[in-house]
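Ticket 4471: requesting a sanity check on a complex prediction with phosphoenolpyruvate. Repro inputs:
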Amino acid sequence: MVRRIFIAGNWKMNLTLAASLELAKGLKEQLAGIRDVDVAVCPPSIYVQQVAASLKDSNIGVGAQNVYHQAKGAFTGEISTGMLLDVGVRYVILGHSERRHILHETNEDVNLKTLAALASGLTPIVCVGELLSEREAGTTEMVVREQFEGSFANVSADDMKRCVIAYEPVWAIGTGKVATPDQAEEVHFSIRNLIEKKYGKEIAESVRIQYGGSVNDENAKEILAKPNVDGALVGGASLKVESFVKIVKSA
Ligand code: PEP
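Returned structure tokens:
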């Protein structure tokens, strides 16, 4: 089974509206010929509508960085799946380590959001990954297993096929300390085994598992060459046209 490589840029809480539109314009121009890699950008939610409009006739999808699980009502400050879809968003990053560790999102929160995203038709990019202390304690596999089981509780086999998982070791995010291709492959392989145990081989083979953590235009090719690495979730290097385009092209 050949899984299409999927490169997504997580702009986090960066850029102005003008800079977001400038970046989108540059990517649209320079990635116009790319057909065999899926590409998405995830701007801050306040800019998604305009970025999505500017990328409308392009091969670049737009994602959000978070969503709330309820459809509507008295949830001040939150945004629903329907609102994201309404303005042209197709993907949503869920359970990013910054949301888990700074904003204290639990596996249960991530699970509610994953179920809501799937029910709405959005494609969730669900992040898992261990802290440095957890890796050093030898508990990486256990931590990732708990995050996987918690985040995907009650997700049906049909829905699982539509999910994307991003393995993002927390110690590698924004630190410049990238996991070695072998370290990434080892965890990706164990995630694929978790999917297989719960959903069977066919689905495990179809789910895309991205690596995230200090991916740049110099290290992307080697990481993406690993058999269980199906793409990348890119933070810092997605903020510049040149580096993001190089990463996409190296795939
Ligand atoms: C991320 O934003 O998910 C990320 C991996 O960031 P960076 O590439 O900057 O480490």
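Notes from triage: The mean pLDDT is 97. Leaving this open until the requester confirms.
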